[in-house]
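tool_call predict_complex ligand=phosphoenolpyruvate
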Amino acid sequence: MTNNNIYFVANWKMNGHLSLIKRLKNVVILSNNKKYKKIKIIYCPPFTLISKLFDKIKKSKIIVGSQDCSYEDNYGPFTGDVNPKLIKEIGAKYVILGHSERRLKGDTNKIINRKIHAALKQKLKIILCIGESLKDRKKNKTFSVLKKQLLLCLKKINNLDNIIVAYEPIWSIGTGVIPLNNILEHDISKIIKFLKLKFKNQKPKIIYGGSVNPENIVKLKHIKNINGFLVGGASLYENKFVDIIKKTTI
Ligand code: PEP
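tool_result ok
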């Protein structure tokens, strides 16, 4: 882990309901505890739950994000789309882009790049997900895939000030399988090296996502140069999420 801020992103995907929001008491308490002042907790529920979530976390340091946005940067006849302006307006600060589950629904690197530009224009912060499939990994193509995603998604982006890169091997998402620490450390160091070269003198923020849970966090937290975790399934359970945060920071 780094000595800087540590990010914990809760990605609820297409899950969650009002009763889940009512059960965030312990995360709220933790976020206000001075002992955890370096921790940044970002909840990304479905769009429909964002305002209800705000009501619940008003007195906390929890930050809210969305799980996607449109690349249209203005209002208009785009049924079903939610643009960054609307997301900003409701008070969210972050947006997850490039998640493999969105890529499966048709988001290409080019589309993700357009979304990043539109979101940055509204001063939203980006959590850009990249990751290789098992097939890519078996063919030793991991880094060439990651490099292509980074190059295309970050086209015409000048700095990383408002961008966190989430490295999420697709084969690890929701499967319970995580990479070995040395492999993860190796891949993350390559991502950092590449980003440092592309964005001169900038310090990239990299988080890991893929089946993070209260058991494997004890191992994962030892990965060098990591700035936190993106948590899917386990973030739906307040006790597990709190456990992950606490175990990372002791
Ligand atoms: C994710 O949603 O990006 C994710 C990492 O999910 P999970 O933690 O369930 O693998």
